[in-house]
């Protein structure tokens, strides 16, 4: 279990690095994160998994909701959501367990925040997914 926890902690760091770099490098480039971080435009080997693994981001009245439309079972589930601000600040994170029905999390943005936000979703079988929105 410790290696999974360390991976999750590393995932938060990866999200922060991505937020600071602002864009995902092109697939096949020397600095490509393909195969480490998956997005709608760069789903790698998980091309058929985008709809059930990419977190959706909804922003309303300073509150951000992340939702991953993924079935939750003991063998296959979303482990964690993380919300990262454009400067790399982790605005919040939530860990899930297989006994919940839906992977949904909510976070408050700092007052008056404007800029990009990054939502992440980590699946125990299909890796680390990243989506972004602008507030």
Anisotropy-based shape: globular
Percent strand: 35-45%
What oligomerization state is this entry in? Answer: single chain
The CATH topology is given as Immunoglobulin-like
Computed CA radius of gyration, to the nearest angstrom: 14 Å
Rounded to the nearest angstrom, the distance between the terminal CA atoms is 36 Å
How many strands appear in the DSSP assignment? 8
CATH homologous superfamily placement: SOR catalytic domain
Number of helices: 2
Describe the structure.
With 135 residues, the chain is of the alpha+beta class. The protein has one domain: Immunoglobulin-like (Sandwich), CATH 2.60.40.730. 18% of the residues lie in helices and 36% in strands. The protein has 2 helices and 8 strands; from the N terminus they run αβαβββββββ. The strands form 2 sheets. It has a 5-stranded mixed β-sheet with strand order 1-8-7-4-5, covered by helices on one side. β4 and β5 form a beta hairpin. The longest helix is centred in the N-terminal third of the chain and has 20 residues. The termini are far apart.
